[in-house]
Design goal:
Radius of gyration: 62 Å
Keywords: Membrane, Transmembrane, Transmembrane helix
Number of domains: 7
Mean pLDDT: 77
Number of strands: 12
Strand content: 5-15%
Helix content: 55-70%
Transmembrane segments: 352-373
Low-confidence stretches: 756-764
């Protein structure tokens, strides 16, 4: 710390000195100062992290760890002239200090004050916690939660506990307040119970009761206030005390705004009557006030002679108030009205005299002005007309206007502007005469060119263009000649245009007829499409040349003819494309290169070649999806062995193909109902259900007693049996807690046992007798039991029920299996163990076996057929009774059914079950892994004979017919070997039709031989094949000779 202080002193001396040059000593001082700032900021950063984490006390402890404290060091380093020192550091390239973290310093300073407040609150809490009430405790704890974020969890726990004790006090006080009718106290208590500041919530029932009591008291209070207020309103109304009535009505308005208040109808009528009377009083008072104001206003207007209109207005408003007006005021108004009318008549007479004189003088002045204006207007009009005519080069018209002015007003004609215009018109007339002579010569040349041969040449057009530009201002005879010549020219042009149009129309019609002829020839058999296409192109070029040379033909006609020809060309092109496509489709239908070419032709048949779509081809098109499935859905062996790959393969099958034979066969490998789920997880769900429904219910101790006749009584105890021994160490008695029904508490059951000397070989035997049967009096037990099975009473060890131990062990073993195959193998082993188990309750053994058999359904569809028959036999074994396996007498009372259950279990051949399932899987796998090729199509000869047309030369051993026989129903047949020669046997003609595709297995194996091998294997195991794959031929499922 001394180095920091020395550095600060050196910095202060440097800043005050006159010589402020850079020296090695000052550089060392700068380094020491910078290092101190870096260290302080680092420690402040640690404090900031603690503060942000809510550990303010830890931050304060870190602050006080140093001496002087961290905040004091920061204050020393952040001296007032620090900015000036930093400028020198940048100037001389000395180590610049980082700025001190003032924000953290301020937080630490604030934390000191907060810690002091927190300590005071903690001391306050200690006092309140010992002697204070719950309300005071809650107030202090809330302050502690807000002041100590780090310890808020502890304070909140205390607060929650105090709030729960406070709820009991408030509910008790609330009931007392409700009994005493203290609405204010009850409202305060309820507000505290529903305060948003509470961490916990009181019980809803008592809170609802308190709210109902509060609402009832509030309603009573409102009705009491209503009655009191209505009495006050009636009193004020009777006394006609307006001020008191206004106050009471305001209080009524406030009362009506209270929530939940519903005023009575008689009260509303009473208030309405009082309000109407009060309004009438206010209106009458207002009218009297207004009357006084108007009376004063009218008097002032009469005194100041404000005018008749103002006086009349004030008087009328005064009379409208319908109050008595003084007669003196009325007389003053009448006198003022008469004086005003007399003065008005005098002013009117004077105005009439002055008006007549002024009018006569005005008429005289107007007459003089009109004449002057008229002369000026005529002069200007004449000048304007002459200007316009001269602008139009009409000199004759301009001279005629001047002659008219000179004739009508000689004085005006002498005006200089009119004389100047007359001179311009004379000069223009001379120029027009010379222009008329030139126009006449040009017109003669144009008339000579008006012949059909010359009228369209450029010379004639140029002559008439010049004449048109020179026609303005020419003499009328010349203009008439020009119009006649122009009409003749137009007529000649129109005649030429009509002639060319006729010729163009005829040529276009000829071209269209030629195109129609070509279009009609295209579909004919034997026509050369290539030559016809060249002809169409040649005709199109001919029409293009016609268009280019069709000068003078109207554009819309050319466009119309071009559209018609384009339509004809389009028809021809369409016919070419359609015919080419039709021939291609026919070629692929009658002599296809392969199946895919044939299938493509069938797909496009209905749209592109409906004429070829006869009934057989339509039927073949409907079977394309089925046929493709025979070729496009080969299944790899790995998919059938992997649930994940099988799941992905099934998900990839389109919805429209899910009912096809191959898809149906593939789906058989997926466990029913879980094809798109994790099968291992689904099996574990079934195990969960087994544990919930059977294992948990069987968690009991089992005690087996036998009577003298060998009858077996199985007691199931909720608790472990207790044995009491005599002083000699011999068992004396036993206590059970027998459970007769699921969920029932154990019924106490005591057994006494004693030793007797037996007569058989001097051996000793233990006999058991219940000490009391009162609790189990409905069950008739033998007088004594002669044997306790499975327990040595010298050293008794009691076990849980045998079926419970077996099922618990089975569930554990199945859960330990990682894959579906392991689970399936383990399930088979467990079924065998259950069948061979001699310790289990016979009925519960049947239940355990049935549950495990049901579990097999989750592994494969192939268990369904076998399990249906097996489960039926097991269900029949107990005669359909609802067994109560907890009843100790159940086995003794129904020995025949016990024997039937044992016989049904003994007849269960688990090995055979699994062998049959393996055989089915092998059969289905063989069917799915077979790949097929499309060999050819069925063709009908002239005599009705059906033969096979091969797609390509190929060897095959047998042919398959794949057909549909209804919605989602299919028929697959294997033709006899004789069909391999290409002729369909007569007995199979009803299964075939022309256009049908026939298939052959790629593996070159006989389906009949494969089926016989599977039937032989099943017969060797003593079973038969009841299910065949959908994709297996119908006539190769039974005997070979079928």
């Amino acid at each position: 710390m001394s180095k920091i202080q020395e550095s600060l002193d050196a910095i202060g001396r440097f800043l005050d000195a006159a010589d402020q040059s850079s020296t090695p000593a000052m550089r060392s001082v700068a380094e020491v100062y910078r290092a101190a700032c870096v260290e302080v900021n680092a420690r402040l950063g640690e404090c900031r992290k603690l503060i942000d984490a809510g550990l303010l006390s830890e931050a304060e402890r870190l602050n006080r760890r140093l001496s002087p404290s961290l905040t004091e060091r920061a204050g020393m380093l952040d001296f007032p002239r620090c900015a000036e020192w930093c400028e020198f550091c940048r100037l001389y390239d000395w180590p610049s200090p980082p700025p001190i973290d003032r924000a953290t310093v301020e937080k630490l300073a604030a934390g000191v004050a907060l810690a002091a407040d927190l300590n005071a609150l903690v001391r306050r809490w200690r006092l309140v916690a010992r002697d204070g009430g719950s309300a005071e405790k809650i107030r202090v704890l809330r302050q502690l939660v807000a002041a100590d974020p780090a310890g808020s969890r502890v304070w909140k726990e205390n607060l929650a506990e105090v709030e729960r004790s406070r709820f009991a006090e408030l509910l008790r006080d609330g009931k007392l307040a409700a009994e005493h009718g203290d609405v204010a106290e009850l409202q305060r208590i309820y507000s505290e119970l529903v305060s948003p500041e509470l961490l916990t919530q009181p019980e809803r029932g008592p809170l609802a009761e308190l709210a109902a009591a509060l609402a009832e008291l509030q309603q009573k209070e409102l009705h009491r206030r209503e009655e009191t207020l209505l009495d006050g309103i009636a009193s004020a109304y009777s006394a006609m005390d307006r001020n008191a009535l206004e106050r009471k009505l305001e209080e009524w308005r406030i009362l009506c705004s209270e929530p939940g208040f519903q005023p009575a109808q008689n009260g509303l009528r009473q208030v309405e009557d009082a309000r109407k009377w009060l309004e009438e009083c206010r209106e009458r008072q207002e009218r009297e006030r207004r009357f006084s104001e108007l009376e004063v206003q009218l008097t002032d207007e009469l005194d100041n002679e404000a005018g008749l209109r103002s006086v009349e207005s004030s008087f009328n408003m005064l009379m409208a108030l319908d109050l008595p007006v003084s007669s003196r005021l009325v007389e003053r108004v009448e006198r003022y009205r008469e004086s005003c009318l007399l003065a008005e008549r005098r002013r009117h007479i004077r105005k009439c005299i002055y008006g007549i004189g002024g009018a006569l003088l005005l008429v005289l002045l107007v007459a003089v002005a009109v004449r002057l204006v008229q002369n000026e207007r005529e002069s200007r009009e004449a000048g304007r007309q002459m200007e316009e005519l001269l602008a139009e080069k009409n000199a004759v018209g301009a001279l005629a206007v001047y002659d008219r002015v000179r004739r009508d007003s000689p004085a005006l004609a002498e005006r200089p502007e009119l004389l100047a215009l007359r001179a311009r018109a004379g000069k223009l007339a001379d120029e027009f005469a010379a222009a008329d002579a030139g126009f006449a010569r040009l017109l003669e040349r144009a008339e000579e060119a008006l012949t059909p041969e010359r009228v369209e040449n450029s010379e004639a057009a140029e002559l008439f263009r010049k004449l048109g530009s020179m026609a303005a201002g020419r003499a009328q005879p010349l203009l008439d000649r020009f119009d006649a010549a122009d009409r003749k020219r137009r007529k000649l042009l129109e005649e030429n245009r009509e002639r060319r149009t006729r010729e163009f129309r005829a040529a276009s019609e000829r071209i269209r007829r030629e195109l129609e002829r070509i279009s009609a020839e295209i579909p004919r058999e034997g026509s050369s499409l290539e030559q016809l296409e060249q002809a169409v192109r040649a005709v199109g070029k001919e029409f293009d040349a016609l268009l280019r040379n069709a000068s003078g033909v109207a554009g819309n006609l050319k466009q119309q003819q071009q559209e018609l020809v384009n339509i004809a060309v389009g028809r021809a092109d369409g016919a070419l494309r359609t015919t080419a496509k039709l021939r291609s489709i026919r070629q692929r239908l009658t002599a296809p290169a392969d199946f895919w070419s044939y299938a493509g032709a069938l797909e496009t048949l209905a749209v592109e070649a409906p004429s070829l779509a006869d009934a057989n081809r339509k039927r073949a098109a409907g079977l394309l999806g089925l046929w493709r499935s025979m070729l496009e859905q080969p299944v790899e062996a790995g998919i059938l062995e992997s649930p994940e790959k099988l799941k992905e393969r099934l998900a990839a099958i389109p919805a429209g193909e899910a009912a096809l034979p191959v898809a149906l066969d593939l789906a058989k490998f997926a466990p029913p109902g879980i094809a798109y789920r994790d099968p291992v997880a689904a099996v574990k769900e079934k195990l969960d259900k087994l544990e919930r429904e059977v294992i948990a219910d069987s968690d009991l101790y089992e005690l087996i007693l036998a009577d003298a006749a060998g009858g077996e009584y199985r007691f199931y105890s909720v608790t472990e049996p207790k044995v009491l021994f005599s002083s000699t160490g011999v068992a004396k008695s036993m206590e059970l807690a027998v459970s007769l029904h699921s969920g029932q508490e154990g019924i106490p059951f005591y057994l006494q046992l004693w030793r007797t000397d037996g007569s058989e070989g001097g051996r000793s035997a233990y006999r058991f007798q219940p000490s009391s049967q009162t609790a189990l009096e409905k069950l008739a037990f033998p007088k004594e039991f002669v044997e306790l099975r499975g327990v040595d009473m010298k050293q008794p060890v009691f076990q849980k029920a045998a079926h419970y131990r077996f099922l618990a062990r089975a569930a554990a073993r199945l859960r330990d299996a990682k894959t579906l195959e392991e689970m399936e193998r383990e399930t088979g082993s467990l079924i065998r163990s259950a069948v061979e188990n001699r310790e289990m309750n016979p009925y519960m053994k049947v239940v355990a076996v049935k549950r495990l058999l049901e579990l097999l359904r989750a592994f494969s569809f192939f268990y369904d057929v076998q399990l249906t028959d097996i489960l039926y036999r097991l269900d029949r074994s107990n005669a359909g009774r609802n067994w109560n396996w907890r009843n100790p007498r159940e086995l003794v009372d129904h020995p025949d059914e016990v024997r039937e259950m044992e016989a049904a279990l003994a007849a269960l051949d688990v090995t055979r079950l699994f062998d049959e399932v393996r055989l089915y899987r092998k059969l289905w796998k063989t069917a799915l892994l077979r790949k097929f090729q499309a060999v050819g199509t069925v063709e009908e000869k002239a005599g009705g004979e059906l033969t096979l047309r091969l797609f390509a030369p190929v060897r095959f051993r047998e042919l398959w017919v794949v057909d549909s026989v209804g919605k989602d129903k299919f028929r697959i047949l294997c033709l006899p070997d004789s069909a391999a020669g290409g002729r369909i046997p007569e007995e199979f003609r009803r299964y075939c039709f022309p256009g049908q595709v026939l298939f052959a297995p790629v593996d070159w194996r006989s389906t009949g031989e494969l089926a016989a091998a599977f039937r032989k294997e099943a017969a060797e195991r003593g079973s038969r094949i009841d299910m065949w794959p959908q994709s297996w031929p119908l006539n190769r499922r039974g005997r070979e000779d079928e």
